[in-house]
Amino acid sequence: MTSNMNRFLFTRILKHFPSDITFAFAYGSGVFHQDGNANPNNMIDLVFAVDKTKDWHAENMERNPVHYSGLRFMGPSVITAFQEKIGAGVYYNTLVHCEKRLIKYGVVQVDSLTEDLNKWNHLYISGRLHKPVNIIRRDNNKSLSAALQTNLRSALTTALLLLPESFSEEQLFHTIAGLSYHGDFRMTFGENKNKVHNIVKPNLKHFQEYYRGFLEEEDHLHWDKDKGIYQQETSSACIFSHLQRLPSHLQHLMIKNGDNRGGDLEEMLKRISEDKNQAKMVNEALQKIVEKSSRSQSLKAIPAAGVVKTVKYSSQKLMKMWKRSTSNNR
Question: Domain residue spans in the chain?
């Protein structure tokens, strides 16, 4: 998925940072084409997963002090605590000039990322990874590798619970791509309302590559090649099977918000599978996860970026929104 030009660029970018990066990926409109957002100089979004967060920040602050806001003067221990104790466990430096491009990079601890991929505690970085990304570094970490696959499988399973009995391939990937935007307040202010569509349409082949293996393994799903649609089984037994495979935090919220009659996990999921409103319950649970993480990360971004960068970044978002609005009104 990475062109030679991008591969060389990412290699050069990584050389500016401490080498202790277990997993790194690039995403967003600066990496993948999005309809209505074709500027080749769009900011590149990156995420670095590291083992020893405090040590990594300490070295990075020595190498790249201007990347950080005034929080750097409080030292790497404070930066690390700020990263791990608030929001979704990721610390972003934004509007950074690197290799003649503008980049934004987030730092997350490997175990924290692995947990989010498995459980969807935050559905923040895990949500980014539902969609095509360019993996630019991947060390041999079996737990993380397994969690990355679990996250994709969970995205497919969740999407199937939200979809009707018959649906197109594009509907499927649109649903998957939209999971991490359920409840995201930024989608009503600042972000393009057609963001999910603009991600999926030009990147359909990438989504197919991501999910082909999981779709082929799905026993309750049939691809009608002549009609170009999927048909899924919607019996309570099939739905129960899907519910059992959901991330544990999503299961917990569905149970908490729904059936309160008690029992063990299997009994409660069984009752949900027989409830005609299970899609609504999935949707509401997703909204709770995403709303909390998106708000906390947005508030966290202000001290992390500093006032000047925050104003500049917000102004750019508002300018994009205004341009889209004027374009749509023509």
Answer: 4-328
